[in-house]
Amino acid sequence: MIERLQATDLRNLSKVRLQAAACNVIIGQNGSGKTSLLEAIFLLSRGKSFRHSQPKRYIQHHQPSTTVHALLSDGRTLAIQKQIDATTILRLNQTTVYNQSILTEQLPTLLIDPSSMDMLEQGSASRRQLLDWLVFHMKPGFHPQWVAYQRLLKQRNALLKQTNSLTSVQLAELKSWDQGIANNAALIHHYREQVFLAWQPYFEQSMTQLLPAYAEQISLSYNAGYDTTIPLDKQLQERLSQDLQLGYTRIGSHRADIHVHWRSESHNDDDIANKRASLKEQAANVLSRGEKKLLITALRLSQLPLLLHSKSTESLSEQSTIAESNITPVVLLDDITAELDDRAIKILLATLAQLPCQVFMTSLTADVLPIVQKYWSNYNTFHMKQGEITNFDSAN
C-alpha cells in the first residue's frame, strides 16, 4: 500500500505530497489537478499516462521532466522520472532498474475513469489490455513471451512495409520470424485462455450486482486473434501476399479481443423439439449509455477479486504472484459520481471496501463522503485547488 506519495512537475502539480490511507478522497473543481494526481500513480505503476502518450504533454510547461515517488507501507520505495524526450529513469529501493514491468509488479493499479466508458465501442486494444493486465499479474511467464512476440512482430511489419516482393534471403528471414511468432503466440494464448476462463464467474457475479436484469443475457467470449487449431506460422505464410500489400500483419496475438455479447432468447415454433434458440449480438448495440457504464464497471471491478483470490484457485495457484505476496493493488476512481448512479457507487465502494486494496478517488463535491465513511474507518480526505493539496477539513 502507498504510504506517502510525491509528484513533481506533472501538469499543474508543481510539488504535491500526501500521506495516504486505505481509502483516499480528493475533492476539487475541474482543472484543479485531482485527476493529475491519479495520473501520477498510474504513471508510476504503468510507465505511461492514461491521458496522453507523449511525456511532453503531461510534463509541466518549461520543465525538463516529471518525477513521481512513492513510499510503500512495507518500506519499499518506487520512483519514475519521465523526460521531455521520453527518456525514463526507474528506481526500486533507490536502485536503478531498466524494465517498467518491475515497478508494475510492485504496484498493480486498476483505473476506472470516464475515458474508459467507451471501451465497448472502441477497437480491440483496450479490451485486450483489460485481459492482459490480469494475465501479467497472474502468470509470470506471460510477459517475457509477450515482449518477444512484440519484438518479432515489429521486425516482420518493418520488412512488410519495405517492399511488395521479397528476395529469397528475406523470405527465409521472414519464415524464421514467423516460427518465433507462432511459438510465442501459442504460449500467450495459453495464458490468456486460462485467465479468461477463471475471470468468467467473477464477471458474472459482478453483473448480478450491478446489472441484475441483464445478468443472464450478457456473456463474454475470448478471441485469440487467429485460428488456434492451425499453426500460426502456416497461416502467416498463407496470408503473406495480402500482408505485403497492406504492409502489416493482420492476424496473431496482437489482434486478440474480448467480445461482450447480448444473448436474446426466443422459441422457434418450427423446431419440433421446441428448443430454445439463442441469438447473439454485440451488447454495445443494445444497452443504453448508463447500462454500458455499469457493464464496463463490472468488467473492471470483477478483476480484483480474481486477482486477490487466485491463491485458492487450483488451476492458477502455482503461478499467481499477487495473492501469495504482501502486494496491495491500487484502485483509481476518477470522478465516479459523474459516471455512475448512487446505487452503482454504493455497490462499487462496498465491494472495494471488502477487498485488501487501496483506493484513490476523485470527486467534484463532498457528496461521496457519507458512503466512504460507511465502509472505511481508515480514510483520508484532501482538497485540491490550483495544483495544491491540503487536508479537506483544513480547507473548509
Written description of the protein model:
With 396 residues, the protein is α/β, with parallel strands linked by helices. It folds into two domains: 1-108 and 327-396, Rossmann fold (3-Layer(aba) Sandwich), CATH 3.40.50; 120-325, Up-down Bundle (Glutathione S-transferase Yfyf (Class Pi), Chain A, domain 2), CATH 1.20.1050.90. It is built from 14 helices and 15 strands. It has helices at residues 34-46, 55-58, 100-106, 124-138, 142-162, 168-210, 232-238, 240-246, 289-301, 303-309, 336-339, 342-353, 369-375, 392-395, and strands at 2-10, 13-19, 23-27, 65-72, 77-83, 88-92, 95-97, 109-112, 218-223, 257-267, 276-282, 330-333, 358-363, 379-385, 388-391. Strands 2-1-4-5-6-7 form a six-stranded antiparallel β-sheet. The model is unreliable at 272-277 and 311-319 (pLDDT under 50).
User: What summary fits the major beta sheet?
Assistant: 6 strands, antiparallel
The string of secondary-structure elements, in order, is EEEHHEEEEHEHHHEHHEEHHEHHEHEEH
Please provide the count of β strands.
15
Might you state the CATH topology name of the largest domain?
Glutathione S-transferase Yfyf (Class Pi), Chain A, domain 2
Q: Kindly, what is the distance between the CA atoms of the first and last residues, rounded to a whole number of angstroms? A: 28 Å
> What is the CATH superfamily label of the largest domain?
RecF/RecN/SMC, N-terminal domain
Strand order of the largest sheet: 2-1-4-5-6-7
The amount of beta strand, in percent, is 15-25%
Rg from C-alpha positions? 23 Å
Compute the number of structural domains. Answer: 2
CATH class of the largest domain: Mainly Alpha
Helix content: 40-55%
Mean pLDDT: 90
